[in-house]
UniProtKB/TrEMBL annotation:
Protein name as annotated: Acyl-coenzyme A oxidase
Organism (species): Eragrostis curvula (weeping love grass)
Domain Acyl-CoA oxidase/dehydrogenase middle, chain residue ranges per copy: 181-298
Any one of the GO CC terms: peroxisome
Active site: E475 (proton acceptor)
Alphabetical list of InterPro entries matching this protein: ACOX_C_alpha1, Acyl-CoA_Oxase/DH_mid-dom, Acyl-CoA_Oxase/DH_mid-dom_sf, Acyl-CoA_oxidase, Acyl-CoA_oxidase_C, AcylCo_DH-like_C, AcylCoA_DH/oxidase_NM_dom_sf
UniProt similarity note: Belongs to the acyl-CoA oxidase family.
Binding site for FAD: T185, G224
Location of the Acyl-CoA oxidase C-terminal domain: 535-705
Amino acid sequence: MASSSSRSGAGAGNEESPAMRRLRRLSLHLLQPFDRPAEQLALAACAGARRVEGGAEVSAALAAYLRGRHRATQARVFEFFRDRPDLQTPVEQTTAAHRDLCFRQLRSLVRDAGVRPLSLMAADPAEYFAVMEAAGGVDISLGVKFGVQYSLWGGSILNLGTKKHRDKFFDGIDNLDIPGCFAMTELHHGSNVQALQTTAAFDPVTDEFIINTPNDGAIKWWIGNAAVHGKYATVFARLILPLQGKGGTPADMGIHAFIVPIRDLETHAVLPGIEINDCGHKIGLNGVDNGALRFRSVRIPRDNLLNRFGDVSRDGKYTSSLPTINKRFAATLGELVGGRVGIAYSSVGVLKVAVTIATRYALLRQQFGPPKQPEISVLDYQSHQHKLMPMLASSYAFHFATIYLVDKYSEMKKTNDEDVMADVHVLSSGLKAYITSYTAKSISICRESCGGHGYAAVNRFGALRNDHDIFQTFEGDNTVLLQQVAGDLLKQYQEKFKGGTLSVTWNYLRDSMSTYLSQPNPVTARWEGEDHLRDPNFQLDAFRYRTSRLLHSVAARLQKHSKTLGGFGAWNRCLNHLLTLAESHIESVILAKFIESVKSCPDEKTRKLLKLVCDLYALDRIWKDIGTYRNVDYVAPNKAKVCGCHSHTATSHKGAELDSDSSFSLQAIHKLTDYLSYQVRLVARELVDAFDLPDLIIRAPIGMQSEAYAQYTQHVGF
Ligand SMILES: Cc1cc2nc3c(=O)[nH]c(=O)nc-3n(C[C@H](O)[C@H](O)[C@H](O)COP(=O)(O)OP(=O)(O)OC[C@H]3O[C@@H](n4cnc5c(N)ncnc54)[C@H](O)[C@@H]3O)c2cc1C
């Protein structure tokens, strides 16, 4: 359907009526190619996509700075798939074909391109994550299949097993001889892993564990690689020791991980006692074969217990270096953070693709314009800048934050330092939750910002949205993960008042909390004008002030409510407050890393450009969360009188109404955010080009750097 605005004369003032103009343009399609006015389409394309002077150099310098240590490895992955059209994902295919293709893509990456992901993970996690992100660029299903095989199945052997397991399985997993699964989730329990019901009872007579699904609620569900390709599964189950509980009853030692063969290595037939069903067609990620598994007293050797944190001896005695079930459980789950790191990192990759397509198209697409003048690019509309430019800035912010996360993860793997471990645990939860939620929302905005052409499957937003959507849920549901961040902040808060030390990421709380708590409103008190709003110290101060105040206030509320509601009830009563706190903290970390990355950029021109993008990120975040700032007294009502600006009312995404008295700071922040969006728009093309994503990864015709319309029309058959 044609847009109603084009019929309603929104471009009034043009001599030719919109209907006539449209008719004239449509009639061009009736001409033979050689009759068409020369380069009609190409000219239209160029008008909006003009480069700023020296734009190519600007992009190149920026790309050089963004390029991670392992860009060359990623480039090799891209080249490999570029040269193998038989391995490229078509726009339409059946579930069976997609699964088959996805497996062939992974196998070829390993066997033909010679990538050894598990070796990379063991030697240099940063390179491993770079390959995983590149694979996800080729097809998100491939990235996830890759993650199931290596982060989850391989990661469980590396991190929860001991030498005997690594010796036996490492090579087979690495070269994909042994595709495997990670079977944690059950029909009745996903997030609450401690409530899993599958059992692994030790049989001292045969020296085996008996894996059993006690009821339908305990059927392992959603298990990647299970429906078609998996040969083994790491199964999470309650370890039961006979006669060792009170009065000779069986003792439940809590959740442990066991290696269970599920298909014959030669014939691929499902093994006796195991029932596998297909979870079926999903709303996305259909290259991944998710299945459900039921175990009917399946016997496995005692050695198949992944025994890094707890072991059972031949005579059935349990030993562990960790004193309690809770500590063992925390250590087991703590070792699985790599999956979350990979998801956060890959989610930024998806965001970059969506933003690149939407931005390039917004530069190319022209609708309406001043009377008797050419139409303008839709990115010249303030509303469009408002939709896309903060998103572009966020892609940059997340890029630096996830690079930092990957570096921290690598450091943790190298040092096994407990503080770094705690830091990575919370950071990976927080960044995974925050970034994947942001990306999921942004893909829909990108689709809408491309109008009707954003709805064509070939232009990718449908697949990006559907494939990425589950990133918010697997590897830990985002709402649950944010609570872990909030819980950790509260623990740190209590430590602070006990005089203890704070772990690395939260150091700012130690420095800032005392100031913020003794001085109710230091940020607004030091407010001076635009220069001040663009001062990174001010911006970081504002973010940290908000976090400190939220932490202080939620701690007081929890204390108050726990007297009447108990710990669980009080937590639930303050849940939204806790989630806001967690997001606020993660935003502080993201901004801090962005500011650091701007400062350490050696090239002055590039640094200036990044500073502009960073300012937009910071001020847009403050503006979007102005309700919370208002609630924590960040915006002082009396400031309105100083400025004399027009009064302004806004509603933040948290739903708080702002009163007109606070218009001084509000107006300044709002206006500056719009201005910065405009400034970023002027270099938008350079900014997306600097992501350095090849056409193979962008794929959408409307997101191509040149001849976008021509590629699009060709796809349809013209
Ligand atoms: C495509 C796909 C692939 C998957 N692959 C695997 C795999 O390979 N291996 C595997 O083991 N699992 C896998 N999973 C399962 C996945 O990890 C779980 O779905 C995930 O952990 C969430 O658990 P759940 O589905 O039980 O959601 P639930 O925990 O039931 O959550 C449902 C809703 O309740 C909310 N909620 C839950 N608890 C709380 C709380 N404490 N506070 C506030 N809100 C709460 C959540 O936010 C969510 O909105 C996969 C799932 C999918 C869809």
